[in-house]
TrEMBL record:
Subunit structure as annotated in this protein's UniProt entry: Homotrimer.
Protein name: Bifunctional protein GlmU
Binding site for UDP-N-acetyl-alpha-D-glucosamine: 8-11, 22, 73, 78-79, 100-102, 137, 151, 166, 224, 330, 348, 363, 374
Family: In the N-terminal section; belongs to the N-acetylglucosamine-1-phosphate uridyltransferase family.
Gene that specifies this protein: glmU
Length: 454
């Protein structure tokens, strides 16, 4: 049966106190709505219809590359009114999963269970039982069967004692949505068109209302304010950390680990505290990441050890390299195997060949560095002339002395050596020594200036 996913995302999110529409607030580096869309895609939904309202253009722009149908709800007259907006584009056949843009952690497994149980009955919902369901719509059952959902504000004292609540996630036959939604009324405590009223309509039609519970409570938690967002972020992170540890990753402290994207790990990867992984990253066998490292879209091959507080973005690192502490690999940094990069070394758009080293205070930008080179402390590739970038080529087995400025474009031939403190503006031939500095000047018995007496 074909499945449509309808996502409610028109709410204002006033309590976030933010310029950004609520569904664009990030959870684990991805907008709340993005999580819901990603889950919808896992279910191979035939179409995804998102109902937008506040900040509509920005919301649409943020997902311009996704194949999504957008339906506007200009005025927020309730959840039932929101879904009514989809009727002109909603297929007559099949079923719809109705999700909330601000309930980002719902699992595809739970939704699949919901689909499986509701397709026979025509309607089903995800419910959860908790100690205190204050604020939520309560599930009213008779002889175990769902009869209605009563909103907190409309509920009587006895109904408010009910611990099972409506999570706002439904599966309904499209034919029934076409039949029921036009009949909703707003005669209730909030003068809103309640989507929840379709449950009573289903009962009146003699249908049974199916229900499933999620595997984890946090799957159905909504985000209304910053506190809830932060709490959900931690739960989401703990879940990801747990999955990584189950795959064999050694997280020194799963409570101090953040993954904002995807991470593929080999065996016996060790990650120290406060590491942040963003985008798509990959770590080979036995890779170690020291405390406080930040990696974005980076691939590190087996056996490499990264010491504390190193930062990577769009970088590729070979096997058995040593990096950090306090190293920075910027986009286009590409290190071969057995490379050593030490503290306060910045590398951008530069390839470094096997076994080469830059161990202290260095900037290597737009450079091609061969194998087995030693780049002295304080070396700078002067890659920018104020208008254009130029490349520095350092061939194999070169020794660059301490505190060199290599003014690009320049080529240092293989096996060459450069003297400490040189500012090199011309190519250096293979196997030669180049030194560029004034001769040491010395004056015997030199008297320093004296302070003038007033
Ligand atoms: C709704 C349910 C309630 C359930 C709760 C779970 C109704 C009447 N009640 O409560 O039973 O326990 O969710 O969180 O449905 N939205 C729109 N347009 C609107 C109104 C809401 O798009 O006109 C969106 C919101 O942005 C949000 C979702 O619908 O994503 C739920 O709205 P919200 O106001 O949070 O839910 P309640 O009505 O309080
Ligand atoms: Ca409401």
């Amino acid at each position: 049966m074909s499945t449509t996913v309808i996502i409610l995302a028109a709410g204002k999110g006033t309590r976030m106190r933010s310029q950004l529409p609520k569904v664009l607030q990030p959870l684990a580096g991805r907008p709340l709505l993005g999580h819901v869309i990603q889950t919808a895609k896992k279910l191979h939904a035939q179409n995804i219809i998102t109902i937008y309202g506040h900040g509509g253009e920005l919301v649409k722009q943020s997902f311009a590359e996704e194949h999504i149908e957008w339906v506007e709800q200009a005025e927020q007259l309730g959840t039932g009114h929101a879904v009514q907006m989809t009727l002109p584009v909603l297929p007559q056949e099949g079923v719809s999963l109705i999700l909330s843009g601000d309930v980002p952690c719902i699992h595809a497994n739970t939704l699949q269970k919901l689909l499986d149980t509701s397709t026979q009955t025509g309607i089903g919902l995800v419910t959860l039982t908790v100690e205190d369901a204050t604020g939520y719509g309560r599930i009213v059952r008779q002889n175990g069967k769902i009869q209605a959902i009563v909103e907190h504000k409309d509920a009587n004292e006895a109904q408010r004692q009910i611990k099972e609540f409506n999570t706002g996630i439904y599966c309904v036959s499209n034919a029934k949505l076409h039949e029921w939604l036009p009949k909703l009324s707003n005669e209730n405590a909030q003068s809103e068109y309640y989507l929840t009223d379709i449950v009573a309509m289903a009962i009146a039609d003699g249908l049974e209302v199916a229900s499933v519970e999620p595997d984890f409570a946090f799957e159905v938690e909504g985000v209304n304010n910053r506190l809830q967002l932060a709490a959900l972020e931690r739960q989401f992170q703990q879940q990801q950390a747990k999955e990584l540890m189950e795959q064999g990753v050694h997280l020194i402290d799963p409570n101090r680990f953040d993954l904002r994207g995807s991470l593929k790990c080999g065996q016996d990867v060790q990650i120290d505290v406060n590491v942040i992984i963003e985008g798509d990253c990959e770590l080979g066998d036995n890779v170690q990441l020291g405390a406080g490292c930040i990696l974005k879209n980076t691939r590190i091959a087996a056996g490499t050890k990264v010491q504390a507080y190193s930062v990577f973005e769009n970088a590729i690192v070979g096997e058995n390299t040593q990096i950090g502490p306090f190293a920075r690999l910027r986009p286009g940094a590409n290190l071969a195997d057995d490379v050593h990069i030490g503290n306060f070394v910045e590398i951008k758009n530069t390839h470094m060949g096997q076994g080469s080293k830059a161990n202290h205070f260095t900037y290597l930008g737009d450079a091609d560095i061969g194998a087995n080179c030693n780049i002295g402390a304080g070396t700078i590739t002067c890659n920018y002339d104020g208008a254009n970038k130029h490349r520095t080529i350092i061939e194999d087995n070169v020794f660059i002395g301490t505190n060199n400025s290599l003014v690009a474009p320049i080529k240092i031939g293989q096996g060459a050596t450069t003297g400490a403190g040189s500012t090199l503006t011309r190519n250096v031939a293979e196997h030669s020594l180049a030194v560029e500095r004034s001769k040491q000047f010395e004056k015997a018995n030199y008297q320093r200036p004296q302070k003038l007496k007033k």
